[in-house]
Specification:
alpha/beta, UDP-n-acetylglucosamine1-carboxyvinyl-transferase, Chain, Rossmann fold, five-stranded parallel β-sheet, 22 helices
């Protein structure tokens, strides 16, 4: 997951291939709570691993659930409810539960813990303390719950005190602010149904009805069947009890599918994208996004557990749609609207204003940043398409809202080839931690659009450390070209191939098949970490032999060129800017003198417990400089358009900030 301050996405051309989506957040957190309320062991498959599910799991473990995770499989043992109630009744202090910004944890846990009479406090991040919960609390107080607001009336944090709740008449709850209030009651009140039926009456029009259907279908899988009269009255039968289904599978997230459906529809390629784990049999309401996307012109085939999206051959068209049934996925329609040939109006989206941020205001502001004309009201938004030539490169504020980040990443598919900057990309961790990695694995764009930063310089100039740090700060890939000859020599030796001219073809073939990963100081070759293995003196001497083989040099040339992948690359070496990537957007050439470099190398070796003489190191560096600058193939010299940077008297942090500032000066944001 990207944890950097911002992520720059270059202009993308298309997406294609196959993607397996993570599990649904809405289903995952409901299932976790149902498992906790059901006696015995439940095995959960394909649970979403995200910020929201993590805070729910942590809360359930604090309450007494036993969990065991292995890959995509989670074993969870339900709570001993009687023991939990007795324990909290006798506890002198309330149990503190922190729920981040997870509405799917805060609302249902509030209801369930109030029904159980657990002495606890529920809190979250600042935005969670701005999200209303008064309608749910009012409904619970009707039943005798003792709940206090710890800061502002109507909002978390909350203190739930031990109390005995009882049902004397129908429980009334508003349905026009958030369907999560009704869902919370539906999940919690079976715990109080021992003596009588329980009726829940919805006041006002219920929004987000498909999310309530998810709740009802999951309740049925756990043994609780709820009758409903339209969308106004729900009846929980007397004696309802939770029973574990033994095991349950979490289907892929339909809201997350919307981003890839849109990306494929907006692609300017011709190959399809197959989205697995979600299909026409989904229990999620957001699967209705498929129909909305089709109305705009998307070509989508639905299978039982997969969707296949083919790039649209004609411009999308705007739509006028009541989005009450797909409030989360409707955000993706707003981005598709930017590409359409006619305006789009999305109605009945008042719930956007009480989500992770005020999404109506946020969407309107950030679309305008890209060049769109947008108007909005209390529960609607209208978006004019961006005219040809009017797209603008923009830094998109995400407001700590995962869906803002994922939606606006799609703007990088714009036909004007404008890059997009996503501020605070780590916010996608709420539901889809590896969203950007997934997008980049599917995306295609001309190589020339993928940015490259080259950092060249003589031996011991600090280019490797600097390049690795720059790559980390930008979220780019990293190429340590100096390690490639060592890797080639080590790998050939491991395969028993002599490092001789007559075997250069075999070695070159090995090199062409290498799978490389550079992660800071870690180097992984074909899945094996070799960071220390290739640093020996013997491998260093072997690398010198390999570097003299023309076929190997050519294979390494191609290998280095092929490391240029989305979202960008930082490469260090001696000829990165002059030979390998002559079209790089930024070229830095470090020029520290040999004496300074020798002192740095001496300090580095001593810190690792390796004895060395400063004068010997200096002589060796001067000899290497002479050889490197005088060699006939790719001699060591700065590219004509490189920025010369003498870092002899600069710390690594100072050098890093200078390079980042130079890079930023070249960006359109």
């Amino acid at each position: 997951m990207f944890t950097i301050p911002h992520l720059d996405i270059p202009s993308l051309e298309s997406v294609e291939g196959v993607v397996q989506l993570p599990g649904s957040k809405s289903i995952s957190n409901r299932v976790l709570l149902l498992c906790a309320l059901s006696p015995g062991l439940t095995v959960v498959h394909d649970l979403l691993d995200s910020d929201d599910t993590q805070v729910m799991l942590e809360a359930l473990e604090m309450l007494g659930c036993s969990t065991k995770r292995s890959g995509q499989r989670l074993e969870i043992t339900g709570l001993d409810l009687a023991r939990l109630q007795n324990k909290t009744l006798s506890a002198p202090e309330s149990l503190p539960l922190f729920l981040g910004n997870a509405g799917t944890a805060m609302r249902p846990l509030t209801a369930a813990l109030a029904a159980l009479g657990v002495n606890c406090t529920l809190s979250g991040i600042a935005r969670m303390h701005e999200r209303p919960i008064e309608d749910l609390v009012d409904a619970l107080r009707q039943l005798g719950a003792h709940i206090e607001y710890l800061q502002n009336e109507g909002f978390p944090p909350l203190h739930i005190l031990p109390s005995r709740m009882s049902v004397r008449s129908a429980v009334r709850v508003r349905g026009d602010v958030s369907s999560q209030f009704l869902t919370a009651l539906l999940l919690a009140l079976p715990l109080l149904s021992e003596q009588q039926d329980i009726e829940i009456e919805v006041v006002g029009e219920l929004i987000s009805k498909p999310y309530v259907l998810i709740t009802l279908k999951l309740l049925a899988q756990f043994g609780v069947h709820i009758a409903r009269d339209g969308w106004q009255r729900f009846t929980i039968a007397k004696g309802s009890e939770y029973r574990t289904p033994g095991e349950i599978y979490i289907e892929a997230d339909a809201s997350s599918a919307s981003y890839f459906i849109a990306a494929a529809a907006l692609s300017r390629g011709c190959l399809p994208l197959r989205i697995e784990g979600i299909g026409k049999n989904s229990i999620q309401g957001d699967i209705a996004f498929v129909q909305a996307a089709r109305a705009m012109g998307a070509t989508i085939e639905e299978g039982p557990n997969a969707l296949v999206v083919t790039p649209s051959q004609h411009p999308l068209v705007g739509i006028d749609l009541d989005c009450n049934h797909i409030p989360d996925a409707a955000m993706t329609l707003a981005i598709m609207a930017l590409f359409a040939k006619t305006p789009t109006r999305l109605r009945n989206i008042g719930s956007w204003r009480v989500k992770e941020t005020d999404r109506i205001a946020a969407i309107a502001h950030e679309c305008a940043q890209l060049g769109a004309s947008v108007t909005a009201g209390d529960d609607w938004i209208e978006i004019e398409p961006i005219a040809p030539g009017q797209w603008q490169a923009a830094a998109i504020h995400t407001y700590d809202d995962h869906r803002m980040a994922m939606c606006f990443a799609l703007a990088s598919l714009n036909p004007q080839h404008c890059p997009v900057r996503i501020l605070d990309p780590r916010c996608v961790g709420k539901t889809f931690p590896h969203f950007f990695e997934t997008l980049f694995s599917l995306a295609r764009t001309p190589v020339a659009r993928i940015p490259v930063i080259c950092i060249d310089g003589p031996t011991a100039s600090g280019k490797g450390t600097l390049a690795s740090l720059v790559a980390q700060r930008l979220g780019y890939g990293y190429l340590d070209s100096g390690a490639l000859y060592r890797i080639s020599a080590w790998h050939a030796s491991e395969q028993g191939i002599p490092l001789a001219l007559e075997h250069q073809g075999q070695i070159a073939q090995l090199v062409s098949e290498l799978s490389l990963q550079f992660e800071g100081e870690r180097i992984v070759v074909n899945g094996q970490e070799v960071s220390e293995l290739i640093r020996s003196e013997a491998v260093g001497m072997a690398a010198s032999q390999v570097s003299a083989l023309p076929a190997v040099r050519q294979a390494l040339f191609e290998l280095q060129r092929n490391t240029r992948r989305l979202p960008g690359l930082v490469a260090d070496g001696r000829d990165m800017g002059s030979v390998i990537f002559p079209d790089a957007e930024l070229k830095i050439y470090l020029t520290a003198d040999a004496a300074t470099r020798a002192k740095r190398r001496h300090k580095q070796l001593i810190s690792k417990g390796i004895s060395a003489k400063l004068e010997d190191l200096l002589a060796d560096l001067e000899a290497r400089d002479a050889r490197d600058t005088q060699r006939t193939v790719a001699p060591l010299k700065p590219a004509a358009d490189a920025m010369l940077l003498d870092n002899a008297h600069l710390s690594i942090d100072e050098t890093l900030e200078l390079v980042l500032a130079q890079w930023q000066s070249k960006q359109p944001f």
